[in-house]
Amino acid sequence: MSDPAVQASHLGKAFGTRQVLDDLSFEVAPGDVIGVLGKNGAGKTTLLELMLGFTPPTAGTVSVFGQASQQLSAGNKARVGFVPQQDELIDQLSVADQLKVIASFYPHWDGEFIDRLCGEWGVNPAARIKSLSVGERQKLSILLAFGHRPELLVLDEPVASLDPMARRQFLEQLVEASMDGNSSVIFSSHIVSDIERLANRIWILKDARLAWQGDLDSLKECVVRLHIRGGAETLEAMAISGELSRRRDGDFMTVVLRDFTPAMQADLRGRHGVDVEVESLGLEEIFLELHR
Amino acid sequence: MFILNPQSGIPIYRQLLEQVRRMVASGQLAPGAELPSVRELALKHAVNPMTVSKAYSLLEAEGLLERNRGRPMTVASRVRNTSQLSRRIEQIQPLVEQTVLAAKQLELSETELVKTVRKNWEDEDE
Amino acid sequence: MRAIARLVYSYFTSTPLTRALSVGGLVLCAASLLVLTSLPQSEHMLAVAYAGLLAFFLGSAFMPLMVGKLSRGHAARLLPHGRVKLLVSMMLTVALVALPAGLLTPFAYVAGVSGKWSDLQRNPQLLDFTINLGWVIFTSSCILAGWLYLAMYFITSQRNVAGFAKGLLVVVIIIVVPTREVNDLSATTSSNLLKLAVAWLVFGGLYLVWPRLKGAMANWRIPGLPFFGASSRTSGREVDLILGTANPWVYIAAQVVPVFIATFTGLASAAIWLYFLAIMSAVTGAVSGQAAERSRALWLRSGWSRAELFAQVEKSFWRHNSFMLGVLLLLMVGMGSYSGFPTSLLAAGLPLLILGTVLSTYLGLMITRGLGWTESLLGISIMLALMAVPLLLQAQNPNLVLVAAIEFKLLLLSLVLRIWARRRWTHIDWTQCRPSRVASARNA
């Protein structure tokens, strides 16, 4: 198993008395695509900023490519790409000039690749950044992070302002980037469907902690909704481990479970003599249920 | 070739698994037929290539697919005939369960259900 | 290295306009150099040289803004050797901008004493002197350029008339203080180099450690001190909060400090001091330039008609500006009497400051469709008039009648501007005010 791209141990960040992140420990392996979900204000941006050393942690450690984030060497910085939530483009410059300025800092910049993407994504190199629409600005911000072919790509709500077609093009680019199995991607987004397509691991930030960190496939297999039919008293009295919520209407009940295993279905049937149907949930439903 | 729904509660790799199994069992994918490469499938459906790899690897372990160096995966040339029937029945089992449950909820009798099935079968043949 | 070169190139060629200025400036400097070495010196050639130097400087005017944007964002932290390269690019730009001045001066001097280069070869002392002169001017220009870039930073990073005026103020101050030394020929290369070294060490040091400093400070949180992380809150009327006029004390502080500096660094001439105050009274009113953009929110939240909106906005600005005007007037009377300036000056100065505020307030309110030619020309003429009065008062027997006439005309103009502004507001079209500018100015 090769070295993790990012590693954190008991990471915490507090602003004054407000504890934004508390005791986070995680690892990002090369080739992982991690989707970060959380309500607004849950600390997604703070987490990403801590990871790349933009702000110092108040507890714990976090390192990138084996080096503490606050002390990243220039060589390691060239292996990381970041797309911030608010673009940081220089309005006076043209698109081409902005690209050239950022490109000049990196020893390996794939100019042809970026030119091709500009064409495919409809970004005009001669346009003045001041005149670009919000979507075009966001596309340019993404391109600026792609050009040096980073091994670790961190994106903070990168597609919030893109139309569906632009989002699809961006996703396709991420698919290409993750083909070699060496590059890792960490992105936070509210557009759950994008994360569902692309991520193999999910982090859910809730109450300053990681309420879930694991495979997306396991998440979908573990968090399910059971539709149970049986006598009203039986249903009422049923105690199910890992239950997140339940709703009962007469002799029909739905229960959302956190740690479902297939054996539980037969078990419940046998033990309580009820009819159990299993409904698997999409990621958005799971997110909502975890926050109920 | 495949219909993948990322928003479904069923993980993508599992959807792919079941679809390939069904297509092989029904003969839609003949032995030796080439499957789309991981890259092709991942790009077409905009999904993580590792998901596709996972499904393909599991199918290879099952003996359904064969890996060829430098070429895309192909359906195994020797798909065991004996298991075909039970496999096919296994494939349709969930649908049958659903139909039976629905019939029970609607308070249809077994005879009435069988009659409906037969009628549908005959209509399809026309 | 490539990054530094690319950065410097971008500073000089950011927009087509700045590119033209940079190239044009260099061409003019080169032309004047050629002329100075071949033809006898003429006033015109010096003017061309000055124009070239100014153009070349203006070509890089966006440098502070660009560096600021890159430094404040995540780029400076993630670009390999980001901050170091940005710092070096700044220093290199300052040197580049000062270079033509340093090169041209020896030639101008030689041409000025109607000598030839062949004379210099025979006279080693003269040669030494000329070369030394070149170095002195080069290093002085570096210092000057640094201050001018600071002024440019104010002008370009605050996209409103107030920022512009503040920048102008910095320009005026530095023209008075450092260039005095050059005129007195009291500057030497070594003293300049020392000043440069200290300034750049302090600036560079702070610039490089700033991120760590900020990170450490964020963990300190001293309650009540707005700088240390906690956001300051202002309370007041909704109108004032939306328009940004709720807290005049910040602006007052920003104006008072330069006045004190100006008075106590020995601005001998009362007229120049009054000119300072007049400019500042204009800055006072210039905040109103943003009113049109910001009033959109007001319009949506209240039930006022456009005419009522104008009346409310006007009242809000007068609530804000009367404080500042009062403070300025007090300063003028107080410091004027302390410095023993003539009474006629003070008497003429009172209405001048009031007029400065009134005119700039209404000129700002007139900006409902962005800064156009009309507003710019009006602004320039008003500035010129405000400058003219102190100049007139400088004479031995000042022509008070002329002064009164000018002030009266300015009064009439202010009434006209008010009517004009009110009429524009009844037709205000917010899509033309580009409200997104306000948001981006806040983020800049």
**Which word captures the global form of chain B?**
elongated
Largest interface comes to: A-C, 30 and 37 residues
- Given the helix and strand composition of chain B, which structural class is it? mainly alpha
The amount of beta strand of chain B, in percent, is 5-15%
Strand order of the largest sheet of chain B: 1-2
Termini of chain C, distance in Å? 27 Å
Give the ordered list of helices and strands of chain C: HHHHHHHHHHHHHHHHHHH
Number of helices of chain B: 5
Shape of chain C: globular
What does this structure look like?
The complex is a heterotrimer of chains A (292), B (126) and C (444). Chain A has 292 residues and is an alpha/beta fold. Helix content of chain A is 34%, strand content 30%. Chain A has eleven helices and 14 strands. Chain A has helices at residues 44-51, 74-77, 95-103, 111-121, 134-146, 164-177, 192-198, 216-222, 232-237, 262-272, 283-290; strands spanning 6-15, 18-28, 33-38, 59-64, 67-68, 80-83, 152-156, 184-188, 201-206, 209-215, 224-229, 243-249, 252-257, 275-280. In chain A, the strands form three sheets. In chain A, strands 6-7-8-3-9-10 form a six-stranded mixed beta sheet, with helices on both faces. Chain A has a four-stranded antiparallel beta sheet with strand order 2-1-4-5, with helices on one face. A four-stranded antiparallel beta sheet of chain A has the order 12-13-11-14, with helices on both faces. In chain A, strand 4 (59-64) and strand 5 (67-68) form a beta hairpin. The model of chain A has no long low-confidence stretch (mean pLDDT 90). In chain B, helix 1 (12-26) packs across helix 3, helix 1 (12-26) packs across helix 4 (82-105) and helix 2 (38-45) crosses helix 3 (49-62). In chain B, a hairpin with a 2-residue loop joins strand 1 and strand 2 (71-75). A two-stranded antiparallel sheet of chain B has the order 1-2. With 126 residues, chain B is mainly alpha-helical. In chain B, 61% of the residues lie in helices and 7% in strands. With 444 residues, chain C is an all-alpha fold. Chain C folds into two domains: 2-215, no CATH class; 238-442, no CATH class. In chain C, 80% of the residues lie in helices and 0% in strands. Chain C has 19 helices and no strands. In chain C, helix 4 (63-72) packs antiparallel against helix 6, helix 12 runs antiparallel to helix 13 and helix 16 (343-366) packs antiparallel against helix 17. The two termini of chain C are 27 Å apart. The A-C interface holds A 15-16, 52-56, 58, 74-75, 77-78, 80, 82, 84, 86, 88, 90-93, 97, 100-102, 104-107, 128 and C 2-3, 5-7, 10, 13-15, 18, 62, 65-66, 69-70, 72-75, 77-82, 85, 211-212, 215-216, 218-219, 221, 229-230, 440, 443.
